[in-house]
Structure formats: structure tokens, C-alpha cells
Design a protein that fits this description.
CATH class of the largest domain: Alpha Beta
Oligomer: single chain
Number of domains: 2
Number of helices: 11
Strand content: 25-35%
Radius of gyration: 21 Å
Helix content: 25-40%
Distance between the termini: 27 Å
CATH superfamily of the largest domain: Bira Bifunctional Protein, Domain 2
Largest sheet: 7 strands, mixed
CATH topology of the largest domain: BirA Bifunctional Protein, domain 2
Order of helices and strands: HEEHEEHHEHEHEEHEHEEHEHH
Shape: globular
Bound molecules: adenosine-5'-triphosphate, zinc ion
Strand order of the largest sheet: 3-7-8-12-11-10-9
């Protein structure tokens, strides 16, 4: 085994004992050691919070109308999960759930509600800040976290359907948002070094839907809008994206009417940390026994 090649036994142990598999693919219970590491990562990320940053925590659901307006549906319809519920009279609902509705399964009676499962933490932030009025050119900073859902096609280790995403978001002048993103790219490399994980930081693209989406992905890479910090988990050839650093230009600014105090459309950027993926990457790199992890890593995580 080379220094960065993770053994199959270790990966299997993470899948079956550090995480608790369930009947649903990509949906796992988190064990005490896993949560201990998540707690350490959370505190480490918090220690990098800039003064004046607003903190917002969200439940795993959000307004469907808000997500539609943000453009998610056009770009990632294949990943979206919508909350639906039974509607109708008491008699019709009872017939459905008791299997007495001729030729109808209870799921046939489901209707979409006004809620979707949140696919990325930062979507909730932009309309909230926009509703407050102009932002300073020097930027508004928000620390946000949410459980997120994505209807992922594969369930390889680290590709979950439900996972925690922590983000720092910046809304301000174009040079403010871009500088924030560049600053976080550099800090992320320091963080990964502190955590003792092998990593690369590379230009990346989002998994846009369909053939037109491929063009959008190429464009995203050409314009250097997204970078990912990758750590080997399943293989060295296809390392796993554990953090991402995104410059959205004026996309959310235009969508939500976000303006800086000089009247220009605000630009936005975010630094996103996949807490579950980072935790998996730590177990994959350092082994199953947290007590045996390198002292410097345990110190960084305060565990
Ligand atoms: P990928 O390229 O692996 O599909 P992504 O580029 O879509 O990921 P982002 O939208 O940038 O990911 O999400 C921010 C972070 O959330 C990622 O860096 C990753 O750590 C985490 N994340 C994304 N998808 C998943 C998932 N299915 N399971 C666990 N964590 C995830
Ligand atoms: Zn984001």
C-alpha cells in the first residue's frame, strides 16, 4: 500500500462501522466517532470565521418557489428532491393508505407541496440579504449550514443522498467576491495540510443536466468559476471533492436584485465544506481509530 492508497478493508470498515448503512442507498446513520470528528471540523471551520460574519443555520427543507427562482431547476433537475404529501378528503386518503383505492397505490395520491429538500446551503442566503437592501462594496459575510439532499445516481463512499454542507458566503463588489474566493482557496490548502490529508486543488465544474449542461460545465472551467479541493477516498485516480470554492459572478445578484451601495449589481462567492465527506476522507487517510491519528491532526480538531 502506497502512502495515499487507501485499502479496501479500510473503506469497507468506514462504510459498515464508522457509518451505519440503512435500507436506503446513500443514507447512513452517523456513529459517535464520526460525529466527534464532525464536531472537530465544525469548530476548526468556525475558528476561521471572519469578524462580523452573520451566522445562519437552516433545516433541510426550503421554499420551492425560491429554489425555482434561483435557477436550480434548469441546471440540476435530476438531483432535486421535492416534498410531497397526501391531499384529498379523509375518505380518499384513507382508501389510498389502506390499499382500498381501486388500482391505486398510496403514492399515486401524493401532490407536490411548497417545499423542496435543500440542495446547497447558500441558496437560502441570497434572498434574505437582498430583502434588507443594498450591501456595502466591501461585502457582507454569512456563515451558513444545512443538511442537503441530492438524488445521486451512485452511492460510492462519500456520495450520499443526504449530507451536511457548511459554507461561508460573500456578497459585495466583484473584486470583493473574487478576493474572498481566492483567499479561501489558499486557506483551504492550509486547512488540508493541518488535517494531514493528501490533496489537490483543481478547476472544476458542476454536474449540470443534459447535453446543454456539458457546455455550461466547459464554460465554468474556462472562466475559472469553480475550484474543488480533492482528497483520495475511493481511489487516487478519482479523488473525492471535499470542499469547493465558487465565484457566481452576477448570477445571484441579478436573480435577487442584490446591489452594492454604489448601485451596481452585487457579485457573490462561496466556500463550501462537505462535512461528511471531509470526515470520511480523514478516516480513509488516518485509519479507523481516532486515538491513533497523528497528534497534530487531533490537535487541529481538538479531539
Ligand atoms: P461533486 O462534483 O462530487 O458532484 P459538487 O461539485 O456538486 O460535488 P458542490 O455543489 O460544490 O459539490 O457542494 C459543496 C460540497 O458539498 C462538495 O465539495 C462536497 O464536499 C459536498 N457534497 C456535494 N455532493 C455531496 C454528496 N453527494 N455527498 C456528500 N457530500 C457532498
Ligand atoms: Zn454555495
Amino acid at each position: 500500500m502506497s502512502t495515499t492508497q487507501v485499502s479496501t478493508e479500510r473503506l469497507e470498515a468506514i462504510t459498515s462501522s464508522i457509518l451505519q448503512p440503512t435500507a436506503a442507498n446513500g443514507v447512513q446513520g452517523r456513529t459517535a466517532p464520526f460525529e466527534e470528528v464532525i464536531g472537530g471540523l465544525t469548530a476548526l471551520i468556525t475558528s476561521h470565521r471572519a469578524p462580523g460574519t452573520e451566522v445562519l443555520r437552516f433545516p433541510p427543507v426550503m421554499s420551492r418557489a425560491l429554489l425555482e427562482k434561483s435557477g436550480y431547476l434548469k441546471s440540476f433537475p435530476h438531483l432535486l428532491g421535492c416534498v410531497s404529501s397526501l391531499t384529498g378528503t379523509e375518505a380518499s386518503i384513507r382508501a389510498l393508505v389502506e390499499g382500498r383505492a381501486a388500482g391505486q397505490d398510496w403514492v399515486d395520491g401524493l401532490a407536490a407541496t411548497d417545499l423542496v429538500l435543500t440542495p446547497a446551503a447558500c441558496y437560502q442566503v441570497y434572498p434574505i440579504i437582498a430583502a434588507r437592501g443594498d450591501v456595502p462594496r466591501s461585502g457582507v459575510l454569512v456563515d451558513v449550514e444545512s443538511y442537503c439532499f441530492r438524488r445521486e445516481a451512485s452511492s460510492e463512499l462519500g456520495r450520499m443522498q443526504a449530507f451536511r454542507m457548511r459554507e461561508y458566503v460573500c456578497i459585495g463588489a466583484p473584486d470583493t467576491a473574487l478576493a474572498f474566493r481566492e483567499n479561501w482557496k489558499a486557506r483551504a490548502e492550509e486547512l488540508a495540510t493541518q488535517l494531514g490529508v493528501p490533496f489537490t486543488l483543481v478547476p472544476a465544474s458542476d454536474p449540470f443536466f443534459g447535453r446543454a449542461g456539458k457546455l455550461m460545465a466547459v464554460n465554468q472551467v474556462e472562466q475559472a468559476l469553480k475550484f474543488e479541493l480533492l482528497i483520495p477516498v475511493n481511489s487516487e485516480e478519482a479523488p473525492t471533492a471535499c470542499m469547493s470554492f465558487n465565484y457566481h459572478q452576477d448570477h445571484f445578484g441579478n436573480t435577487w436584485g442584490l446591489r452594492t451601495d454604489d448601485g451596481a449589481v452585487a457579485h457573490t462567492a462561496c466556500a463550501a465544506f462537505g462535512l461528511d465527506r471531509l470526515t470520511i476522507a480523514l478516516f480513509a487517510t488516518h485509519g479507523l481509530d481516532v486515538d491513533a491519528w497523528p497528534p497534530s491532526v487531533r490537535e487541529a480538531l481538538c479531539i
